[in-house]
Design brief:
Blueprint (H helix, E strand, L loop, with lengths): L1 H58 L5 H18 L5 H38 L1
Length: about 130
Amino acid sequence: MATNKKAKTASSKQKKTNNTQPQAQKSEDKAANLVKTEKKAPQTTAKNEKKTQKKSSDKSKKPNIFQQMVDFIKAVYHELRKVTWLDKKELTQKTGVVAGIVAIFTLLVWVVDTGLGGLAALFLNK
C-alpha cells in the first residue's frame, strides 16, 4: 500500500509539472509581447513630441487681445441668434409664476421667523 501511495504522489507531481510548462510558456509569450510593445513606445513618443512642438508654435501665433475680444463678441452674437426667445404672453405668465412663488416663500419665512422669535422671547424672559 505504501508503494501505491508513492506511485500516486509521483504521478500527481508529474501532472503538476506538465501543467506548469504551458503556463510558463504563456508567461514567456506575454513577456515577449511586452518587450515588443516597449520597443514601439519610444517611436510613438517621438511622434507625439513633434506634434506638441507644432502645437506650441501655433499657440505662440495667437492674435492680439483686441482681435480676441472681437472674435468673442462675434461668437456671442451668433450663439444668441440660436436662442429661442419667449413671446410677450409667455414672458408675462412665467414672470407671474416666479413672482407668486417668491411671495409664498417670503410669507413662509416671515411666519417661521415670527414664531421662532416669539419662542426665543419666552425662554429669555424667564
